[in-house]
Amino acid sequence: MKHISWLGVGFLTPALLIVGFLFFAPVVMTAVFSFTNMSTATGISGGDYLLSPNNLDEMQAHGVSQKTLDALADTTYQVDDHGLLLLAQEFGTEIANELKERHNNDIFKNRGELERALKDMKHRIRSPRDRKKAADLFGTSILNQRFTSKVDFITAVIQTGAVQADIPAVTSVAYTGWQWTTNNFKRLFSLPATWRYALNTLAYVTLTLVFNIGFGLFLAISTFYMPEGFANTFRTIWFLPRILPPVLYVLMWKWFTWDTGFLSTILAPLGIPAQNWMMQTSTHAWVTIILINGSVGASLGMILFSSAIRSIPASMLHASEVDGASRFQQIRHIILPQLRWPILFLTSYETLSLLASFEHILLTTDGGPGKSTEVWALAAFHTALRNYSGNLQYGYGAAFALILVAIGIAASLVYMRLFNFRDLVSKPRIER
Amino acid sequence: MKIELRNFTKRFDGQAVVDNVSLTIESGEMIALLGPSGCGKSTSLFSICGIHRMDEGQLLFGDKDVTNLPSQKRNVGVVFQNYALYPHMSIFENIAFPLVVQKADRATIRRKVADIAELVQISDLLERKPANISGGQQQRTALARALIRRPDVLLLDEPLANLDAKLRLEMRSEIRRIQSETGITAILVTHDQVEAMSICDRIALMQKGKVVQLDKPREMYANPANMFVAEFLGNPPIRFMPAELHENQMIAGGAALPRPQHLKQSNLPDKINLGIRPEHFGPQFGNEISGHILAIETQGRENLYDVALSDGGVLCSIQPANDHLNPGDTIQWGIASQHLLAFDGQGERI
Questions:
Q1: What is the arrangement of strands in the sheet containing A76-78, beginning at the earlier edge strand?
Q2: Which residue of A has its CA nearest to B95?
Q3: How sure is the predictor about A83, in pLDDT bands with cuts at 50, 70 and 90?
Q4: Intervals of CATH 2.40.50.140 along chain B
Q5: Is the dihedral of CA A422, A425, A426, A429 positive or negative?
Q6: From B101, which residue of chain A is nearest by alpha-carbon distance?
Q7: Mean pLDDT computed over B112-118
Q8: Which CATH number does B3-228 carry?
């Protein structure tokens, strides 16, 4: 027995690895990313320590004391080799050597003191303007200096005379790498755009689903009553949207709706001005999106419902006919009630896949016009992987995605409950 | 209502499944379409209820020609072999369905369903789903649904085939009771001759798309038109043996027998086939034929004996049960010659 059970684990391993790498790992990584502020600016590895003048305002907002801010903003003047070299180039080596002799490594609190020191020298610089210029060569500020190690940065901050208590806040602001944060979610729930995306998603999923199921049912039932050969041809045609590569499929829709495209051309003789039927208004965009996604889903519904209808015993349909039921009554009383399970199944399946799908919207309206068709998944994509500012906010985008994952899992659990999942997999749901 | 089928032909892919059949069923009569599988009996039934279109011929319900009416407009009740109950509806809804699609009012529906449920004795099951009742109860439900509109004709397609032996006996008499109580003309399609003989007024025996004989059960059993009919009716089946006719005697089964009264005509062929039913062969009919017992089958009340005759033929005999004989024993039995059935070389009755 022991051998057999290990054999089972062995056989399962490839599947487990695939589930682990392809499903579990992405979810975990999304969750991890969503609690960071990763973006193009921070990179996804470590970072340096750098304070810019802009950071000073930011630090003030974080409650860093004014004294520290002043200290950081201050420029100090130290006689060092770097400055001396520059001085020698501009004002001669004698002056440089004398300054080195007298004041090597001395720190001057401000430029005036250094200027005075320069004035007091044997080879002094006569013009005050030149002295000022020479003094500037020794000015150093912590601002705009890049430190690769945290220790170096803190040392430099202490040297400026910053208050000890402010150092953690200063360090945190100066860090250019990514950091752990919950700000993504705070930001998400505070921005009105978020709710717009949520409503868009709700509208997209609901309307597409209604179209999917309704049209799928219509196709399945109408082809059921057609002669076999004709019905098969018809079904194959309606299956094209699903087997066509999305890019090609969308391209055809674009040809169809462009202002010089099919629709505009055939409507021109009727006096309707040429227009972009896809992007003219947000209504146009919505109708297009629902038709495009709906047709893809409807083909699946058609196949699923068709096979379900055909598994209804012929004698039951005959019975309803001799019982006097018309076609319509047969559909309403016999066929539709027996399609209950396939309809429920497709509804749940399509809800989940529509929630996460955005490729057709991306390829058609790309969320436009404006943000009117920007759905949640597309917003996540735009935030994290493609946006106009060029700063890709991986962390923020992951927060979008994580919420989608949470909704998806919750919906799956509800559906499993609803379907009594164990029953569903254990026996066919076409009632006999 | 009187049902009349005139020169009915049905073809599938150019092959005639039912070939020029004419049949008249009197009002209130129950007739059986009996035959082996593939004889066209179910096809006939489906054509009468309108599921199949007739390729040729005419169908009359009373004086009304319904040949070209769809099944919805024919007012027929059908009980399907698998009952074809609607699984998503309760028993009440199943029975009420023909009235619901007619848009009858609620009170009428309730009253009629209650009446018919009482007739078929399922009044206490109306709230259940078909999956939760027994086969016999499903059968009764299907009957009730078929009868609720008071159809012009009730069509039963192998209604007892899916029941176990005990239920089959019970439902057999139930179907007959319900049919005669309602007085509805009925057609029963079956391959089971016992079923057909026990409950039907007349039997139409079909073979290869044609009606071979149409008669009362008793008459058909006693006077089959040919060897096929003779063999199809009766259990255990009739046995045949060749016979040579001479002036005053005939040679059959390795014995010389007196030529029976009803085979005295002089225009008969010399060589004929004799059909002998098991109840017409045994010790009580004399001792002209000798043979030995091949097998004994005990059925409780009766014993069946397979007897090998001296010329190699085999006859079957049915007798009250006893323990006198064993396989291998030699016997000297006789034949009830007045019941001998004679057939010519083509199998037609002489």
A1: A107-108, A76-78, A139-140
A2: A323
A3: confident
A4: 239-343
A5: positive
A6: A325
A7: 90
A8: 3.40.50.300
Query: H/E element holding A172?
Result: helix A167-174
Alpha carbon of A254: minimum distance to chain B alpha carbons (Å): 45
**Residues making up chain A, counted from first to last:** 432
**B122 within 8 A of B95, measured Cβ to Cβ:** no
Topology of the domain comprising B239-343: OB fold (Dihydrolipoamide Acetyltransferase, E2P) (2.40.50)
Residue of chain A minimizing CA distance to B142: A319
- CB contact, 8 Å: B50 with chain A? yes
The interface predicted TM-score of the complex, written ipTM, equals 0.82
* Cross-chain residue pair B86–A333, CB shorter than 8 Å: yes
Q: A interface mutation test: which of B78, B83, B148 has the most A CBs within 10 A?
A: B78
Q: Provide the mean pLDDT of chain A.
A: 82
**The pLDDT value given to residue A171:** 76
* Calpha distance B332→B334 (Å, rounded): 7
Domain with CATH 1.10.3720.10 in chain A: 190-426
Q: Is B264 exposed, middle or buried (0-12, 13-18, 19+ CB in 10 A)?
A: exposed
**Range(s) within chain B of domains with CATH label 3.40.50.300:** 3-228
Given CB atoms, is B208 within the 8 Å cutoff of chain A?
A: no
Q: Is A320 in the B-facing interface, judged by CB distances under 8 Å?
A: yes
Q: Is B40 left (phi over 0), alpha (psi -120 to 50) or beta?
A: left
- A327 touching B (Cβ < 8 Å): no
CATH architecture of A190-426: Orthogonal Bundle (1.10)
Question: Which residues of chain B make contact with A315, given a CB cutoff of 8 A?
Answer: 80-82, 84
The model's pLDDT over A391-423, given as tens digits with 9 standing for 90+, comes to: 788 888 888 889 988 998 898 888 888 776 666
What percent of chain B has a predicted confidence (pLDDT) above 70?
A: 100
Query: Is A333 part of the contact surface with chain B (CB cutoff 8 Å)?
Result: yes
Question: To the nearest whole angstrom, how far is the Cα of B130 from the nearest Cα of chain A?
Answer: 9
Reported confidence tier of residue A432, pLDDT bands at 50, 70, 90: very low
- The pTM of this model reads 0.72
